[in-house]
Amino acid sequence: MTLSTTRGTTVSADDAARVIVTNGGTPLKGRIRVGGAKNAALPMMAAALLTDEPCVLENLPILEDIYVMVELLRHLGAEVDLDTTKHRVRIHAKDFDQRSAPAELVQRMRASFLVSGPVLARTGEMETPAPGGCKLGSRPVDVDVRGFKRMGANVFVGDGYYSMTAPRLEGADLYMDYPSHTGTENLLMAATLARGETTITNAASEPEIVALGNALREMGAKISGLGTPYIKVKGVERLRGFHTSILPDRLEAGTFAIGGVVTGGEIILDRVNEHDMAPLTYKLREAGAEVWWNDNAMMVRAGHTLESLEIQALPFPGFPTDLQAAFAVLLTQAEGTSRINERVFNDRLRYVSELQKMGAEIHLVNSQEARFTGPSRLRGTDVQALDIRSGACLILAGLVAEGETRVHEIQHVRRGYEDIVGRFQKLGANIQYA
Ligand code: EPU
């Protein structure tokens, strides 16, 4: 498979098992354009299963996870035309060949569970294994499954798989014990074709969910309350196709912004939504960095010092759990004692041991809390990407460290960042595949 086809180096997956970052300490400088958000693209692709009309998504990020979703949609019977050069996908789910998702795809990515709501709502049947994905601690799907049951589905839970049937889903009052991101998306999509009204209380309010909801509205869905913990959906008989552009990836933007600050550099990120970046903007400023906005361009410049601070990773608009690993690199360079409290996942600080190998002074209080004493002198060595965001964190650490940092298992990072190497090179980093 060929990757990263449009924005920089073209590499084959086999040739690119690791990246090497050398001469860390070079300040990042320059300007790059932020791509479309993976975590909005995946549910929006699944939403195309709700209609027999074609759906087109522009500004699609070209990533491993997108290829997995393309395969899954094709397996179900949708026609999928993926144009990697134009960053566009056209999906036409006229009919279904299958109502079951194959284990080899579902185990590669948790977001594959997102096809369950649409397939169940449109066809009345769905079979799927429990999803895999990044290992961040416990990742159940009971919010989704309980919701489907409340909407009248019969759900049989076998050994690691779900079999669901519902001739027609019925609107219901749903209360989510936890504001699950993909759980909210699955139930929102299912409710669009249910008979009657559905309310979702304690819904998640991430910008990607609002973007999905807006695409569903373009399809003719009747939804109110997007971006709040109370979503209301009036079910309709059928939905139309959509043609829409995916919102900018706040996590990609955040990773580059943190990179600019931690290397003492200055960068401009084009096509970023200010509102979506607010939690990070506050914390970068608190750390002493300067952040300005000009329309949809975000300008970030390192301050004279980096101040220690506390991060609480929480659902939006709390600080994004997906950026706490990247921010940890900044905290290794901040003066004094800092703290990260990961309150979304119960095991998302495993990257700490990799940063410790590089010389970071971090005390892991428990699997959800880390204390940093900075600044630490980071030295390059061999480290392992454990998941998408920990891999990005280790690349950032390499951009700060003395000597050569070899980040192994880089395929995890390619699931979530398009051409990360080419784009860091564009900002002046000494980084390459090896
Ligand atoms: N949870 C429950 N019950 C459930 C579902 C979730 O208790 O039924 C708990 C989980 O155990 C976890 C927490 O809720 O502790 C958060 O899980 P959530 O379901 O909200 O996360 P997700 O939908 O699996 C999405 C993103 C993640 C991102 C999280 C949090 C996608 C495809 N994935 O995951 O993105 O970290 O929301 O914002 O949208 C990434 O991009 O690297 C990534 C992991």
What does this structure look like?
With 434 residues, the chain is α+β, with helices and mostly antiparallel strands. It has helices at residues 38-47, 64-76, 103-106, 116-123, 142-150, 181-192, 207-218, 250-262, 274-286, 321-332, 352-357, 388-400, 411-414, 420-426; strands at residues 2-3, 11-12, 18-21, 29-33, 55-58, 79-83, 88-92, 125-129, 154-157, 161-165, 173-175, 197-201, 222-224, 230-234, 243-245, 266-270, 290-294, 297-301, 310-313, 336-342, 362-366, 369-374, 382-384, 405-408, 431-433. The strands form seven sheets. It has a four-stranded mixed beta sheet. Strands 4-16-18-17 form a four-stranded mixed beta sheet. A hairpin with a 3-residue loop joins strand 9 and strand 10. Helix 8 runs parallel beside helix 10 (321-332).
Judged by helices, strands and strand pairing, the structural class is: alpha+beta
Share of helical residues = 25-40%
Low-confidence stretches: 1-15
Task: Give the distance, in angstroms, between the N- and C-terminal Cα atoms.
Answer: 17 Å
Query: Radius of gyration, Cα only, in angstroms?
Result: 21 Å
List the ions, cofactors and other small molecules found in this model. uridine-diphosphate-2(N-acetylglucosaminyl) butyric acid
Backbone shape: elongated
What's the total number of strands?
A: 25
- Biggest sheet character: 4 strands, mixed
Determine the strand fraction and express it as a percent band.
Answer: 15-25%
